[in-house]
Amino acid sequence: MPALAGLVAWLAAAGLASLLLYYVDAKARLEATGKVRVALGEARDEIDRRLETALAVPETLAAVIAAEERIDDPTFEAIASRLVRANPSIRNVALAPGGVITAIHPRRGNEAALGLRYVDVPAQYEAVQQAIRTRRTVVSGPIGLIQGGNGVVSRTPVFLRGPGGRDTRYWGLVSLAVNVDPLLIDIRRVAERNGLRMAARRADPGQRPGEAFFGDPTVFAASPVTTYYPLPGGGRWELAALPRDGLAAMRAPLYVRVPLHVLALLLGWFTYRLLASQGRDRMLAGHDALTGLLNRKSFDLQLHEAMQQTQPRSCALVLIDLDRFKPVNDNYGHRAGDLVLQQVAQRLQQVTHSEDNVYRLGGDEFALLLQGKRGTRELFHLVDRAVEAIRQPVVLPDRRSVSVGASTGVAVFPSGEEPELPAEVFDRADRALYRCKTQGANGAADKLESIR
């Protein structure tokens, strides 16, 4: 029972510690998730800062063309150069009347785009058609550019205004290409500043997400914190981020976890030791320290209980007193005497049944409390076997042997219809033992008389 109680205490304490650590870990992950969301907000702000100022360029040119119904090359160059200088992220801005690029700034490095017919580039023509259909700027990318490299491309449709200021006639497009690298550098700085792994990919509504164009693609497979950045025209980017070691690593440190589990283990151990000590104390309080048999205190208690619970002639009390024990102590020493007492205790336990109790009342006095129905012959036979077992030699550590005898007194109870007290039963057995001693029978003499 102490071991079981200790195990239960340890399991309960360990469960409580695990529950506490679970909430500590959950709190740590929640806090980490909040920090990641803040960092993703910073990344969105950085993208906004670059794209919004860049997207003002085609809007400005489109407004000029719509108002003037035309734009000559010097005017285009003047406006475009001023706007591009204000935003270094812009790769180029181009005019495409009727869907064909006829002017581009800066020209150097972008010559390959001149003369491009969007209808001949299916990957880009879909976005062009969407811009014309919705009459709104459409941003797509990152995509591969005709002139080389990757960029985020916007197409702003231009409609000329008729009488009353209404857009009546489609003129063409103002196209803008924004360098991807500055955007990615901004996102990377946010990730490094916050100790995150971050990735980005195209994730248009209703379509399968594209491949990551920034960061480690495996971030998306690791249950990251995500947010979306909407692009003009209906597209969007999915931004994902995780702490470098992952959210699962956001847990209480070892210097918190280990002591809690050690305390749980110690609680289980102390519970075991406490109950074991209490049980040992209770056992010692009711047992003889030398032989391990029940002592006089247990004898008095159990004799009283047996007399309260038994049926007529169902129990017997046998008192046993050792003969020739004092010479063993005198001639061989108290250690030899202790060994004899221990051997006698073991032999008495061997000849009795499991429901019987064996006691050491003190000194060389023993008692048997035999419970359960037994006939007179069976009772005498058991007492004879007990006496015979005690008479067997005891081998000492120096290989010498000693022998003792035993005198017995037996009292069967209840002895009649009149109730008896425990002391009366004990006195009957003690008188029978005295007669056995005085007669020198060295056995169970006068048993019949003691039973009557």
Automatic annotation (TrEMBL):
The keyword Transcription regulation does not apply. CDD domains: GGDEF. It is found in: Membrane. It is an enzyme of class 2 (transferase). The keyword DNA-binding does not apply. The chain crosses the membrane at residues 254-275. Keywords: Membrane, Nucleotidyltransferase, Transferase, Transmembrane, Transmembrane helix. Its main location: membrane. It comes from the Bacteria. Residues 313-449 form the GGDEF domain. This is Diguanylate cyclase domain-containing protein. It comes from Lysobacter yangpyeongensis.
